[in-house]
Each structure stands twice: as C-alpha cells, then as structure tokens.
Write a structure and sequence with these properties.
about 325 residues, alpha/beta, Nucleoside Triphosphate Pyrophosphohydrolase, 6-stranded mixed β-sheet, two-stranded parallel sheet, ADP-ribose pyrophosphatase, mitochondrial, EC 3.6.1.13
C-alpha cells in the first residue's frame, strides 16, 4: 500500500499507452466461472450479440475504409452472409502501405507465404473464437460475412487478429465519497477509463496494441495485459527504485481480485475486411472501493490523444462495439446505463 506522502511525491504520471491494466490469473479460473457462463461469447453465430438491428457487423461495412480514400463496395444486409449467392461480388482489394512494408507484426502477402489457417501456425495463433472459418483461394473468409473490401486493410494478420480489452471501472462519487445515483434510473453511476484514439478521434476502451492488437500466441491474456502495463506504465515513472517497488507491489496486489469476463469473440471493427478481422477478450476489472486504480494519475500514450474517466451511459458514442461491452458491465454491476 502506498502511503499518501509517497503519492504526493510521485514524479511523472503513470503512462496509459493504449493498454492500462493487467488482469489476475483468477479472471480465467473458477472465481468467475459462473459469471462467464452467463455471457454469450459468440458475435457471429446467429448474430445474437449484435447491438444493432440494422444487420451483421455494421461498422465493418463503413463506406470509406479508415485512414484511406478507399471506398468499400456497398453490401446490403441480405448479401452479407457468404451462403447468399452473389456472383457479381467483386470488392476492391486494399492493404495499407504500413502493412505492406512487412513490419514484424504483419504477415507476408499470400503467394510469398502459405499460412496454416484455423490452427496455431508457428508463432501466430490463427484460430478463431467463432470456430472454424472458410478459406477460399488461399485466403480466409470473414466468419461474419462480406464487408465490401478484400485484403488486410490496416490489420497485420490474414484471418483473426487477436486483441484484449481491459474495461477498468469505478463508482462515481460525490465530494463526501458517497455513490452518485443517476437522476432518471436512480441507479449508481459507473465510470470507466476511456482513451480518445488518434486515428479516428473516437473514444474507446484501452486495449492491447502489440502489433496492432496482437496477443502473443500461447500467452494468457491476463499475462499479456500485466506485461503491457509493466512495460508501458511503470517504466515511465521517474521515481526511486524503492518507490517503483512499492508501486509495483500495490498494482500486483490490486490484480489479485477476480475480474469479470465481458465478451470473447468477433469485434465489429471498421478495420475489418473480407480476409482480416478483429477478435477480442474483454474483461472488467472494478475498483469497488475507489482506492487503487482510481488514485493513479493517467497520461495518454502514443496511440491515444486523451485519456480520462468517463461516466457509463448509453448516449456516449464509442469506437467499434465497445458500447455493447459497457452495457454488459453496467448490467452486471447493477449500474446506470
């Protein structure tokens, strides 16, 4: 536990860097098994968790591909599913120059390599949370259907690109420390750590961005998040070794409590294409007493323009399907939404 005098003399804020927190091993064990079983972890099968009634993966069919002037072929709702015949379907193929430059986090182009899909392919996990996906002409097909764009876009991997999203929450309190209740719902208000993405200007849940959202294969997501926090946050503190050790111990103790698995599956992300798509595991870590995460100063990292605590509310617009994740958290915590 860090005492107040030490907190006052911390030199340099803790750097968020698009990944904020690590989750304990108990997130994935019996401590939350009852909670996990209550969550539908499939995004594509039956489209049962889709937050929109307009059709499957709406943001994955945005008219203009992000970060480019590339226009998607418009895909009507009734033609999204690959089983629907559409012989005229001929989308533009686009892979961003940043991906074609062959960074370490990206695959080579098809032809110069032959990935083994639906399996752990060497150092790359090409399995999908949505089950086995089809491969056509050597390229994987998006399990949620057509997007109007072929290629990889901004994503490094052919097929699933795995990410992990920590949803960090606390109760909103007044000056006396009492929970604030919403005037309409009369339910207590939750706040979550949100970043404003530089690439699109939208607010989002902080997520692991090793190689544009990659989670290292064979590594538990809990370890990925904890490693990211240690690398990106603790290393930015200009404090003494003794202070660093005490801060690290405080954070380690914080993460021993259980988390709540919110979602596991396909993400309706505007970067998705017919051949590359985002998948994630989203876990809620809640600072119930407001004396751990809530006290850490936040500073946006390279991928975030701003970072702040934001009230959970259905009217707050968020990136991809992050609103859907937060709605699940609000219901689980019996909070306002």
């Amino acid at each position: 536990m860090i005492h107040l005098p030490l907190r006052r003399h911390l030199v340099g804020p803790i750097r968020l860097a698009f990944t904020l927190l690590g989750l304990p091993h108990t997130v994935w064990t019996s401590g939350v098994s009852k909670t996990i079983s209550a969550v539908n972890t499939s995004y594509c099968r039956g489209h049962s968790t889709m937050p929109s009634s307009a059709g499957p993966h709406v943001k994955s069919r945005c008219p203009q591909y992000p970060g480019s002037n590339i226009k998607r072929l418009s895909v009507p709702d009734d033609k999204v599913d690959w089983t629907q015949k559409w012989p005229e379907y001929n989308p533009v193929s686009y892979t961003a120059p940043s991906v074609l430059n062959n960074p370490a986090w990206a695959d080579p182009d098809i032809g110069s390599s032959s990935p083994n899909f639906n399996t752990v392919d060497g150092a790359v996990d090409r399995t999908s949370f949505e089950g086995s996906y089809k491969v056509e002409n050597g390229k994987p097909l998006n399990p949620c259907g057509r997007t109007g764009l072929a290629g990889r876009g901004l994503l490094g991997r052919w097929g699933p690109n795995h990410a992990a999203d920590p949803i960090v929450t606390r109760w909103k309190v007044d000056v006396k420390g009492a929970k604030v209740h919403h005037s309409v719902s009369q339910k207590p208000v939750l706040q979550f750590v949100s970043i404003k993405r530089k690439d699109c200007g939208e607010w989002a849940i902080p997520g692991v961005m090793r190689g544009l959202g990659m989670v290292d294969p064979g590594e538990q997501v809990s370890l990925t998040l904890q490693r990211e926090f240690s690398e990106e946050a603790l290393n930015s503190l200009s404090s003494s070794p003794a202070e660093r050790a005490e801060i690290h111990q405080r954070i380690t103790n914080l993460f021993k409590s259980s988390g709540f698995m919110v979602y596991k599956g396909y993400v309706d992300d505007p970067r998705n294409t017919d051949n590359s798509w985002m998948e994630t595991v989203a876990v809620n870590f809640h600072d119930d007493l407001g004396n751990s995460v809530s006290e850490l100063p936040l500073e946006a990292g390279d991928d975030a323009g701003q970072v702040q605590w934001v009230d959970l509310d259905s009217s707050f617009p968020l990136y991809a399907n992050h609103s859907h994740f937060l709605e699940i958290v609000a219901k689980e915590r019996k909070a306002h939404w």
